[in-house]
Amino acid sequence: MGERQGSVFRWRRAAGVLGAVALAATAACTASGGDPTDAAETGADGEAVDAAGLLEMANENVRLSKELDAAEDRVIADCLEAQGFEVHDLRELGQHEPYEMQSLVDYYPTDGFLPEANIAAEWGFGWWSQTEEMFDSQETQDYYEATFPDPFADEPVFDNSKFESLPDDERRAWRVAYQGEEATAALEGTGEPVPDGSSEDGSLEFGDGEVQGEPKPGGCQLEMIEALYGEPQQVELDFDGGYLVWQWRPVQPEADYDAMEAGYAEQMADEHAGFLGCIDEAGYPGWEIDDLGRLDMQDYSAMLYTGEPYDPGTIPGEEAPVDTSPPVPDLPEDVPDDFDGKRAYEVDMAVAFAECGDATGYRETALATFDAAVNEQYAAIEVDTYAWQEQIRGYTVKAQELIAG
Q: Could you tell me the keywords of this UniProt record (predicted)?
């Protein structure tokens, strides 16, 4: 975060919160798109897809992963208990309750500019909540709870008090036995990053710069990994110049999110005019939908509350991101100067956008189109996913055999 933005307006901080909440909503999203209980729907390519079956496949992924989590942790716990550790850190061992996904969709491209009518009338677009005045307010908390419900709110709470009540040295001894000295030191902030630009076995090379990475698992965790999977493998995550992580389970197939967005954008290319014409007539002219089918409002919202365009900041040593979004319209000359007036303007604008989305049928079309694009991409990995599920079942059985001795 740039110093100016940090002292004047916490856009990036709020954006991070919203992004995290939106990602968490994967498990509970029930937005007004297609009914996931429908036996079949039409994909973006016109082919019929079993939407309910795809959702069940995704939930089976969760259930199988949690079952394997539990079996892995039992193997680790047996190893720890053989060394005399009877009380375990339930943040690491013991959280195995699956959650139930209600939708394959965790966001819609319209989410940022087309709130539901009741949300728009009360909260506007939510821009006001990201201001210095309101970011830490109870009203902002109420807004987040109303618009981004916690999908994990009903998960059981694990009582970790027994472990937390142990002396510091006993807790640390448990962690070392659990994951090894190197991993424990790294979590304490005393470990060293991966010192060179390659993986342990030399198979990954990343140029002449240092690559940060997590330490190799050790202790009972490594014993479990070797007993079930063989040696863990080091792989690169592609962000911020690369990051090395350790992997041992078969990788779960992932839907192609870029293809989802591209399919949606292609299908919606001829659908935007009616909505844009409606908001134009409502007094908000000059808006353009971007290549992904979104209306990027960051500059507009920042201009409204700060008088300056949105500044995403830069990471030292990296180039500033290139903004390819269409330019936003200028603010009207009569926009109020005071905070309450600005917020009232935001609410009026959000209500107009919501009404146009409903009146033109744009909202319904956009949600159904994105549902179809998502279903199409999940259908594309269906065969691979069922094969992965069989692998996970096999490893669960193997873990249970280890537990049984």
A: Signal
